[in-house]
Design brief:
Helix 1 packs across helix 5 and helix 5 runs antiparallel to helix 6. The strands form 3 sheets. Strands 1, 2, 3, 5, 7, 9, 12 and 13 form an 8-stranded mixed beta sheet that branches. By secondary structure, the protein is of the alpha/beta class. Helix 2 links the parallel strand 2 and strand 3. The protein has 6 helices and 13 strands. It starts with 5 loop residues before the first helix and ends with a helix. The chain has 2 domains: 163 residues, 3-Layer(bba) Sandwich (Glucose Oxidase, domain 1), CATH 3.50.30.40; 33 residues, no CATH class. The chain is elongated, with a radius of gyration of 19 Å.
């Protein structure tokens, strides 16, 4: 997936009948590491009104459970109350070669994260701690995030355009088609640079 980009993968999934695989446009890279890819590891987080008896319990369990190449996908309902993520969790993930985090909530510690080669995708930043504001209630179970269903073992790809989820049972074919489409787009790009009419190039290749 490292050689692919979200737009081409989204196009291929559309053509395969998977037309609802992109997360909300609000979820974007928050750090200089602006590309994320790997296997999905899910977490569900909800708003809470008080500090739990065991704060961060499942959040820590998720990180301790993940393996190299996993990407933590946190369905938090676009919660902006607090920062779910930060420098120390990033440090723990980097030690395990976890691929990144994608979440519908916020981060903090950008002063440190901006110096670390670890992709953090979210909806914003705030200094407020998550304890007593947001808490993980499930890990490793299917989630539906922005209408996109995701489960452990699905693939995830994110870049400056956004984030796409690739269902595990369609991944091999989707990646094959996406690689082919990238090659086709390279050809189209060269023809457009040569000044050929857009309509003519589209008729020839069916790519735009």
């Amino acid at each position: 997936m490292e050689s692919l980009y979200t737009a081409v993968v989204a196009d291929v999934l559309d053509s395969m009948g998977f037309r609802n695989q992109t997360l909300s446009a609000d979820i974007r890279p928050l750090t200089p590491a602006q590309k994320v890819c790997g296997r999905v590891f899910t977490a569900k987080a909800v708003s809470v009104a008080q500090i739990p008896d065991e704060p961060y319990k499942l959040e820590m369990a998720a990180i301790d459970t993940m393996v190299a190449g996993d990407v933590l996908l946190v369905d938090a309902g676009h919660n902006k109350q607090s920062a779910f993520w930060g420098e120390l969790l990033t440090t723990a993930c980097m030690a395990k070669q976890v691929g990144g985090v994608v979440m519908s909530t916020c981060s903090r510690d950008l002063w440190a994260l901006n110096k670390m080669d670890f992709p953090v995708f979210g909806i914003g930043c705030t200094p407020a701690d998550s304890a007593g504001r947001i808490d993980v209630v499930r890990i490793g179970e299917p989630v539906e995030m922005d209408g996109v269903k995701a489960r452990n073992g699905d693939l995830i790809l994110g870049d400056l355009d956004g984030v796409v989820i690739i269902p595990a049972d369609a991944a091999e074919e989707a990646l094959k088609r996406a690689s082919e489409k990238v090659s086709g787009e390279n050809t189209v790009r060269e023809e457009l640079r040569a000044g050929r009419p857009v309509a003519e190039v589209f008729r020839k290749h069916g790519i735009l």
